């Protein structure tokens, strides 16, 4: 992720200083034996030759084959704000990749590459559609429910959105598309960017306009052919016509993101601070349907929101719900934010508070001292996995930010996904060891399914 930040920072202003820093970052963070050939050519640029370093960089960039695969970014007029607030909001130009243009360019560049990235390994496409056949979404879909449609030529498309910090100073909203059929590999190889927006310059209207163009492009893919009108219904002489990717047709199957992204693009009427807290059910902040009453028999499990209810009451007008085939069940929360950055800090704080009630595990005269010893052990575990620990030293005050009597928690901003994963695995080992040493305890019983 740090390398992503470096490229984003570089993109703001290509200077000699930035190029030199990029080369140093590549050499420092990636061992030479792991560098792919194209990056070896980049790292081989002489950083001391400041007079020609820019020319060498652009020469390297223009030789990259992936540049031929990507289409020219499409310019759109959007409302922007001045990050220093020295001038009023203004109409400016932002660039994005339209989904149809992107996939058409990949298909014409290399059909085998297109099949590898979008159709997946042999049998994956058929298996995917077979798994969806009995869902309400599939049965109601205007394309998939048609018995005359050959699903062997229809591939799924997943849209994903999230924020990326640059040096923890600037935040960029990144929207990408990918295929859920891609074999497990780096996200650099499977996700294709549609737009990257500097949040300090964007308004709600900015994202409304960009999303409208993204949805327009997804509609094109579901039609299978380029449209001759733009998002405003005006004639569009774009120089492209006919089929987008030969006999194949793309189908939007899911919109995925963290709560912030979904709130922004779907304009949800539910949030953590409103009375209704969930877009999928009618869980509330108070009353019989309070969201903290979780479990298999939780009352709010009996009042799931239907797709019609969501369209009428769960969101305000937006481009995504106008996309043919949109369904609430295809709105997915990001695993990283839901599990790694939300649930793990919550349960880990409770475990740490209980584990440090006495000195049977970590020595210390008081609980804060024992929590500090636990933090030292956690930091060592992070180093063993090659993960940088940026969290604060564990303390009772830190875990009860609202005071005792509330649920303990670890503040999310002090963790990233990698740290949270190490934290969960480390605490699993600690708790299993404690349960094994105390076979009569309730923790041991829980670890064996209650038997």
Strand content: 5-15%
How far the N terminus sits from the C terminus, by CA atoms, comes to: 43 Å
Q: Give the helix tally.
A: 18
Radius of gyration: 25 Å
What would you call the shape? globular
Got a strand count? 7
Summarize the structure in words.
The protein has helices spanning 2-12, 16-29, 37-43, 53-63, 65-69, 99-109, 111-118, 124-132, 136-140, 187-190, 204-223, 259-266, 307-314, 335-355, 367-384, 396-399, 417-437, 442-447, and strands at residues 74-80, 90-96, 154-166, 170-178, 192-198, 249-257, 331-333. The protein is built from 18 helices and 7 strands. It starts with a helix and ends with a helix. The strands form 2 sheets. A 5-stranded mixed sheet has the order 5-4-3-6-7. It is globular. Mean pLDDT is 85; it is low at 1-12. 42% of the residues lie in helices and 12% in strands. The chain folds into 3 domains: 2-63, no CATH class; 74-268 and 315-333, no CATH class; 337-447, no CATH class. By secondary structure, the chain is α/β, with parallel strands linked by helices. Helix 1 packs antiparallel against helix 2 and helix 6 (99-109) crosses helix 7.
Which features would summarize this protein structure in a list?
451 residues, five-stranded mixed sheet, disordered N terminus, two-stranded antiparallel ribbon, globular, alpha/beta
TL;DR of this structure?
The protein has 451 residues and is α/β, with parallel strands linked by helices.
């Amino acid at each position: 992720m740090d390398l992503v930040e470096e490229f984003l920072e570089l993109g703001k202003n290509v200077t000699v200083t930035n190029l030199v820093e990029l080369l140093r970052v590549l050499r420092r963070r990636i061992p030479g034996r792991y560098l792919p050939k194209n990056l070896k050519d980049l790292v081989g640029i002489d950083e001391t030759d400041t007079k020609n370093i820019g020319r060498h960089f652009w020469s390297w960039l223009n030789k990259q084959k992936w540049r031929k695969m990507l289409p020219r970014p499409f310019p759109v007029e959007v409302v922007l704000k001045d990050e220093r607030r020295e001038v009023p909001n203004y109409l400016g130009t932002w660039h994005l990749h339209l989904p149809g243009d992107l996939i058409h360019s990949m298909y014409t560049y290399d059909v085998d590459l297109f099949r590898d990235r979008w159709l997946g390994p042999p049998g994956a496409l058929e298996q995917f559609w077979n798994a969806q056949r009995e869902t309400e979404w599939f049965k109601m879909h205007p394309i998939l429910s048609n018995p005359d449609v050959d699903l062997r030529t229809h591939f799924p498309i997943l849209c994903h959105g999230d924020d990326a910090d640059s040096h923890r100073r600037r935040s960029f909203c990144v929207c990408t598309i990918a295929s859920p059929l891609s074999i497990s590999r780096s996200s650099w190889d499977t996700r294709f960017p549609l737009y990257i927006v500097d949040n300090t310059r964007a308004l709600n209207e900015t994202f409304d306009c960009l999303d409208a163009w993204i949805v327009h492009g997804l509609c094109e893919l579901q039609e299978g052919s380029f449209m001759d009108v733009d998002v405003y219904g005006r004639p569009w002489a774009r120089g492209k016509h006919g089929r987008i990717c030969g006999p194949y047709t793309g189908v939007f199957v899911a919109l995925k993101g963290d709560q912030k992204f979904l709130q922004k693009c779907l304009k949800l009427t539910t949030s953590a601070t409103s009375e209704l807290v969930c877009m999928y059910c009618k869980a509330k902040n108070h009353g019989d349907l309070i969201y903290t009453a979780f479990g298999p028999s939780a009352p709010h499990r009996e009042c799931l929101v239907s797709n019609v209810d969501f369209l009428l009451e769960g969101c305000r007008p937006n481009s995504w719900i106008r996309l043919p085939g949109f369904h609430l069940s295809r709105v997915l929360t990001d695993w990283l934010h839901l599990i790694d950055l939300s649930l793990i800090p919550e349960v880990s704080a409770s475990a740490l508070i209980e584990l440090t009630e006495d000195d049977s595990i970590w020595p210390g005269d008081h609980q804060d001292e024992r929590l500090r010893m636990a933090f030292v052990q956690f930091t060592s575990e992070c180093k063993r996995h090659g993960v940088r620990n940026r969290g604060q030293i564990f303390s009772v005050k830190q875990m009860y930010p609202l005071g005792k009597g509330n649920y303990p928690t670890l503040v999310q901003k002090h963790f990233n996904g990698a740290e949270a994963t190490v934290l969960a695995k480390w605490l699993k080992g600690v708790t299993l060891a404690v349960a094994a040493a105390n076979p009569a305890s309730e923790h041991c019983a829980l670890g064996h399914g209650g038997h």
